[in-house]
Structure formats: structure tokens, C-alpha cells
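We give its fold:
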Amino acid sequence: MRLIVLILAAACANPALAQSWVGLLKNTPVERFDKEDLRIFVATSDKALDETPDGQTLSWENPKTKHHGEITVLKSYESKGRPCKDLRVRNEADGRKGDNKLSWCKADGKWRLLSASPLKK
């Protein structure tokens, strides 16, 4: 749920980003996630951001819904003195598949979404 809140907060703060998120989330697996899917997905995302080295992939799955995905840390870097990470996020739910690159930086002890873009196959 925190990821959805972060997405909406980012979208509200930046109208251009809001339009991107509407397009990014429309008809995606995230629309089909239940609360448990979101809990598992966010926990996996947190682990990727806080603990996972570059090049490593974490998988998640909700055995009840069979919704699942992978989060790969593409690279870690610094921007304006802050730690940042680019993640590849692939999810599948109810036949919907998503594959996106999300860029995050840590500020004031919290990871903040900088950008999101769909990856082309």
C-alpha cells in the first residue's frame, strides 16, 4: 500500500508525473493486487532498496492469488550526495504483465521515487 501512496504523492506533486503514472498503472498488474499482494510486493521492494546488491533479483509471490513478480537492482549510485538505485520491476497478476524501470533516491531517511518508465520488450 505504501508504494501506491508514494506513487500518488509523487503524481500529485508533479502534474507531468501524474499523467505518466496514470498511463503507467492503467491496465497493469498492480490494478489487480489485493492487500496481501501489495504487502508482499512492498516488503520485497524495501529489501531491494535497503539490502540488495547490484545485479541481484528478488522474487515475490502470493500463494493465495498466484500473483508474482521480480525486482532486480540494476545499479546503485549517488546523486546530489544521496544514495540512489535503479530497479527493474516485473509483475504479473490475472494475465497482466508489467515491466518497468523505477529510479529511487533516499532523502531524509526515506526512499523517494524519482522516475518511472515502462521497459520495451
